[in-house]
Each structure stands twice: as structure tokens, then as C-alpha cells.
Amino acid sequence: MRRLVVTLGTLSLLLVGLSACGDDDGSGNTGAVKVTGEFGQAPKVTYDGELNRSTTETKVLTEGDGAPIADDGTAMVHLYIGNGYTGEKALSSWDQKTPQVVTLSKDTLPALKDAIAGQKTGSRVEVLATPKDAFQNQGNPDLYIGNGDSVVFVVDILSNVLDAPQGTEKTVSKGWPVPVEKDGKVTALKFAPGVKPKKDLKVITLVEGDGPAIEKKDYAVVRYLGQTYDGKKPFDESFSSDTLEARQVGVGGYIKGWDQGLVGVKQGSRVLILVPPKYGYGAKGSGKDIQGDDTLAFVIDVLGVA
Fold first, then answer.
1. How many percent of the chain have pLDDT more than 70?
2. Third-level CATH fold of 167-305
3. Domain-by-domain residue ranges, the chain?
4. Fewer beta carbons within 10 angstroms: which end of the chain, N or C?
């Protein structure tokens, strides 16, 4: 699946062999755009003439009632990008059927930051961007956008994304695996000696968040660490990565233990999910680290839900 490029740092690797498609001075305003459709659904974007903007225009088409996204916050969004010069869709996360996770920083495209920073969750925002605010007057050859092209962004802000669990810590019975942390990041799970794993799928809440609960077919943004029961080290984890992604729950994109165990978990929660083989990788296991009779233990932070 093609990854969406949203930061100037990664775009710098793509600026090779670029030639302008449209006007290169951005002077004057021409053309218009009409965006229709409901929040959360793919927008219909109609172009009336060649769009050119000398000043970036931001308009809230649908105002949500959720908390605003901080200037340095992270959001789960659906995103449409259109070329104002050609009137063509350049990219849409709706086509990919997967929202994108955008962390705002000094490197975030200015037009994209305009669409997200300070806007309420649940909002649809339109940005008609100058070539400079869209792609720093350099365009994006992967999207067939030239360095003089004004650009249309339509952004649906689906959810804020937390940095860490946020809620009420729960008292947990002795015997369950315990997350081991270093510098605020989970690095491993510690298992109680002599405690055998359960044969059924088990979800243990360590921190109960106060955000929306995951429903089947919702998208969730999580950090996680997985370790076989009594394993010496994790077989997989994302706590050490700066990259976050949204994935749909309950549709087979995860192992069955996640698809079933995450339903009902609230945003802001940290949970343990103990996954017996029939809810994991079955009798065949997975690679050299997971055998067919291994029970898997996961610690999962649910950071965003939409």
C-alpha cells in the first residue's frame, strides 16, 4: 500500500527531475472549488476553471464538537489532495481505505498544518493552498504536482491521538505479566514464575481510558509489544518507533486475538491481551520466534479511535 507523504523532510528525497506544470509565480486568484459530501465519507471535489491562489485560504466546512488538535499534536485524519492546475485528484486516503496519522511539527506541510492545528475533532476542513504553503514551491513529483501548482486539501479530523495512556490505573491481580519500562517506553514483559498461561483469550485492563470505545470496523492507533509467554525478549514492538498508523479492528487485519480483544477497549487505555494459539497464529506458528503451541502476551496502548 502506498504511504502518504506529508512532511517536508521525506519530500526532500523525492524532488528529482521536477518541472513546473502551472504558473510559477502564484500571482492572482483564479478558479473555484466546490466540496460536497458528508464528514467521514469521500468528498466530491468539483473544479471551476484553473485554481490559482496567491494567499492560502482555510475554510471549516463542517465543525466538529470534539477537542481541538494542539499545534504540536497528533491526529488521525482522512485526506484528499487535488491539483488546482489540472483539476485532478492527486491522492485520497479514502481510496486507500485507511486514515493517516499526522504529527504536527515544524516540518509539517504548512497547508496541512492549517487544516489540522486548532481545529476540532469531527471537523472537515478545506484548504486552497499556494504552491509555497502546499509543497514549498517545489511540488511533489510522486503526486504529479508541479512547483507552480496551487493545491486543494480536504481533511477530515477523525480523532486526536494521545502520546501515552490517559485514564485510571486499575488494580491487577498478581500473576499476570507486568510491563517493564525504560525512559517511559515499554521494553519487555516480566512473567510471574510458575504461572501457566490460560487457554482462553484474556484481556486485562491496566489503565482504563475515558475516550470512545473501539467498535468492530473502527480504526485504532496503538503502540504495542508482543512476547511469547515466558519468552526472553519481545518478538515485535512499536514503542521504540516514531511511526504510528491506523488499522481497522475486527475485519481480519489483525490476528483474531486482537480483532476480538480490542473491541470495547477505550481510547487512553493500556491493556494486556493474552492470546492462545487458536486466537493467534495457530498450530503453524509464525517464523522462528512463535511456535504453534505458544501463547502470546501483548501490552497495547490505545491512542486513537475513530
1. 91
2. Chitinase A; domain 3 (3.10.50)
3. 8-160, 167-305
4. N
